[in-house]
Amino acid sequence: MNANLRKMQYAVRGVVVARAEEHKETLCAGAELPFKEIIHCNIGNPQEVGNPPITYIRQLSSLTNYPELADYEHAADIFPADVIEKARLITSLVNTGAYSHSQGHHLFREWIAKFIEERDGYPSDPKNIFMTDGASPGIQTVIKALIREKSDAIMIPRPQYPIYSASVQQFGGTQVNYDLDEDNEWALSIEDMENSLARAMEEGTNVRGLCIINPGNPTGQVCNEQNLRDVIDFCKRHNLVLLADEVYQENVMAEGKTWYSAKKILCDMGDEYNDVQLYSFHSTSKGFLGECGKRGGYMEITNVPEDLRAQFYKAASVSLCPNLMGQVTVAGMVNPPQKGDESYAVYSDEKNRALKSLKRRAQTMWSALTGLPGVSCNPPQGAMYLFPKITIPQMAVEKAAEQNMAPDLYYSLKLLDATGIVVVPGSGFGQKDGTFHFRTTFLPSEDKINAVAYRLGDFHC
User: Fold this and answer.
1) CA 86 to chain centre
2) Is the dihedral of CA 456, 214, 13, 31 positive or negative?
3) Which residues pair with 71 in a beta bridge?
4) Nearest C-alpha neighbor of 208 from the set 184, 240, 236
5) pTM for this one?
6) pLDDT tens string 114-168
7) Closest-CA residue to 84 (of 104, 100, 64, 102)
């Protein structure tokens, strides 16, 4: 087997989750444990933990996957007129049982381009849109394209979502970390980026790209405009490709925080920066849709020469096309109901309730964490996660070492065994030496979030 695959790690579905599955089987068999259910706070999978789907998305999916429903005599009693009309437009051009263009159907890419133009105020070309099965395949494709040999490196934040470290390892490259500033609400630090790049270059590493996650995963920070300008300028000065993971762009909850896309800021900076290559990623899995299982996403490429765009098209062609129901879900995300549409009131209400509830749950979880002894945590700004720092007693550190285990993995397993709460140890995301963390979502329903807070308090007492 390829040695890179053996070395690759992906903590989000690692040892703690495997133990949780064992506990589930134990509970299902009727055996006693200190808890009656497992509560998953380990992964951003909203509907798995009770977050309801958006009605409009499911209606559009139903009508496009089974077009005959629109002709049912009582269809108008079930489906809003605007959803039927949109589905008929789609099914007149798209067959969800057939392959599409390898970049995704042109109709959907036109809608995505329009969505980006309205969001950023700058043109977007459908030929520069690549629809993907979630955001992950786009990220992996770009990283794979950048890595030619072991000395080629990608700069990634520490902490980071482990698709980046896993992909760099899988494709045989080198990971260069830059640290987010925990004492400054996990802000990006250009000074640390410069120092990390300088060290890598001294070691003979050829850094080719830089990743940002905005809003952050696992840290939840939202980059301000100056952060993004500094990053883009850094990429220009050092001739780096910029990868912008923007899948949480709808999830901003901190007062006074505004989310900006990297493309908007890049375009704001003028023609002088037209040589900065940007790859931007979005997904239906996050935001208020939470349609993880539909595997819908897209990548937009900016300032990428035509010959390179052709290579990405070739790479997309190998997989023939992204799945069609994922494409339909993206289409629904970027072309939602508008005021005056029959479906607008329900859509708007469901969206607002989902986002307000997420904000309340984030506050509940943060308040619980900051009230625990030996725990500190930055307030939630965006995304779906908190990344608290924990103090682990020396005795526990030594016991973890005896089991050849990271201390925060030891903590996470003990937390699971005592409470049934599933979190991910911070070592799976990267963290400064000598610090320990874990990542938790705040996705469980509001009654379960309160149960999580109560169980955490009991565990730390």
Assistant:
1) 28
2) positive
3) none
4) 240
5) 0.92
6) 999 999 999 999 999 999 999 999 999 999 999 999 999 999 999 998 889 989 9
7) 64
Length of the chain in residues, anyone?
461
Separation between Cα atoms, residue 202 and residue 404, nearest integer Å:
32
Q: Exposed (0-12), middle (13-18) or buried (19+): which is 93, by Cβ within 10 Å? A: exposed
Phi, psi (deg, nearest 5) at residue 343: -85, -5
Looking only at the bridges linking them, the beta strands covering 152-158 and 375-376 are unpaired
What backbone torsions phi and psi does residue 400 show, to the nearest 5 degrees?
A: -65, -45
Confidence of residue 445 (pLDDT cuts 50, 70, 90): confident
Sequence-distant (6+) residues with CB within 8 A of 330 are 104, 108, 112, 131, 284, 296, 297, 298
| 75 CB neighbour count, 10 Å cutoff | 15
Q: Nearest to residue 134, comparing CAs of 235, 285, 239?
A: 285
Closest CA to 285 of 294, 274, 273: 294
Write the CB contacts of 312 (distance below 8 Å, at least 6 apart in sequence). Answer: 130, 141, 145, 301, 304
- What stretches of 307-451 adopt beta strand conformation (E)? 375-376, 385-386, 389-390, 421-422, 424-425, 438-441
The angle subtended at Cα 208 by Cα 204 and Cα 214, nearest 5°, is: 130
Strand partners for 177: 156
Model pLDDT for residues 221-254, shown as the tens digit of each residue: 999 999 999 999 999 999 999 999 999 999 999 9
End-to-end CA distance of the chain: 46
